Task: structure prediction
Amino acid sequence: MPHDQHITPLFQATTLTEVCRWVQELLHLHARLAPRFTRPEPRRRALRYLQGILSDTARKNGWQLAEHAREGSPDGMQRLLSDAVWDTHGVRDDLRAYALDYLGRESAILVIDETSFPKRGKKSAGVGLQYCGTTGQVENCQVGVFLSYMWNRYVKGYQAGFSPVQQDAF
Result:
């Protein structure tokens, strides 16, 4: 039986220096994206949104992200995503450039994976009676779509027939 391959070393403690570097890097990324927002309010909220998404907050819905940002309701976060004026194509281009600056590999691919999750309640977005691949049955579930950035070191068996990351893939 083959041994498991781990991408990250096991039992390696995160240092305070690393955490500080992550915070600085997020601020650097936000500074790169900031000119894409026409008004200062959505620009500031975008940083708080990113901080919430990257936080250890258990659920990443509007209420929890707003609470993490110390806002009284999810209205501001929802407004950022639905009504605020910002250059979505410019943000996409900036994020792509950022990813390629730090992760760029000539053999990189994007992997899109749709995964369903059984849900018992009906309060989450998109929950409904549908086929749930996780259980193999039609039941109350939610579907999540995940986008992963990979390169050939981690895609053994998938190396033939993939194309490099290109702007029109976003």
Notes: The helical segments are 16-33, 40-53, 62-68, 75-82, 88-103.
